[in-house]
Amino acid sequence: MSKGLPIAAQPRPARLHLPLASEARARDRVRPEYAVWEITLRCDLACRHCGSRAGRARPDELSTEEALDLVAQMAELGVEEATIIGGEAYLREDWHQIAAAMTAAGIGTSMTTGGRALTAERVALAKQAGIETVSVSVDGLAETHDYLRALKGSHAATMQALEHLQAAELPRSVNTQLCGINLREIEALLETLVRFEIHSWQIQITVAMGRAADHPELLLQPWQMIELMPLVARLDRRCKQLGIRLWPASNIGYFGPYEALLRHDHADGHQTGCEAGVRALGIEANGDIKGCPSLPSADYVGGNVREHRLRDIWERADRLRFNREQRVEELWGRCADCYYATTCKSGCTWTGHVLFGRRGNNPYCHHRALELLRAGRRERVELVEAPPGLPFDHGEYRLIEEDWPADLLERARAVADSGEGWIGG
Questions:
Q1: Tens digits of per-residue pLDDT, 184-195?
Q2: What are phi and psi of 186, to 5 degrees?
Q3: Is the sign of the CA dihedral 398, 402, 408, 413 positive or negative?
Q4: How far apart are CA 144 and CA 138, in angstroms?
Q5: Does residue 293 sit in helix, strand or coil?
Q6: CB neighbours of 50 closer than 8 A, spacing ≥ 6?
Q7: Is 227 within 8 Å of 219 (Cβ atoms)?
């Protein structure tokens, strides 16, 4: 297992000449409420868990003129909110111009950053551009964060970035990946964030894409949903006490006993499946368009804005349409027979696809882990083919179902019943 500094991958050019359907169907005329725009893949960090393997700029990133035209197309399509990301967004010289253009077009604009060099001057530019809130990535206490970010001192820089945002009175939040080496310090991490007066905290599990797939120690096992979900519930209770909104990402959960608690902002009080290509839109720095920014590019880019209007790609690209179908027929494994299949549709497409090379089966499910636990069984994933080392790539895993080790079974059941403690092993 490699422990050295990750090497930045060489990005490939945009995916051109992809076919579009001859016309849009009625179901394709949904509008993306939210877009995430990677305005550059260039980055000043080389994080071990980075799914995009960010570092080098793409060779054909949109020009300022092209980016501003895309802003107009986003507004025309009906995008209401957008987040600019990277790589590291502020490493693109015109980042604040793009943000200001979105604000002027009536698109609520935010920014997500690793915070290594989010100086007071850059914060001032963000505020001037009308950026409404900035989310800073913090992935553990100092030692763990520095390991994940592959840079000693990156945690201190992140804390300073939060201080700059606080001093400028620019609303701020934090996002954190829950992974195989930080789970047991996440509650302590929350207490260190309180002083920055954050309004929200987004958490998600690390997904086996990009550099994360090179580091098996960073991946949680599906059976760990038994201890992760009670942790998330504890975090939610503590966040409510602190006046912070806990925002679990779409790859956390699924229909366990904490579903209604954690999905209180959903109309039905529960997950309703992947929103890629329905509510969400992903944009890569070279103008490639996906239904979700996290999805592997090779399988989900539907077109490029240098060849087609954004509306045409959104409505007519087959690779953006999959969530506009019923999709039950593509479910497989335990997801195919699940009681919640027609509602959940295997949950987060990104999380499942990068394990098996196709969507339709997602073992990172609390309901599924609990059902298996009742039978004394559990699931784990094991790498069988390493990823090639390209941005947004993934390897191939096999899913192993096995008996719980005898020395852990009763402990797992106690954690599931009480919502407290850790399983170990």
A1: 999 999 999 999
A2: -70, -40
A3: positive
A4: 10
A5: coil
A6: 6, 43, 210, 211, 212
A7: no
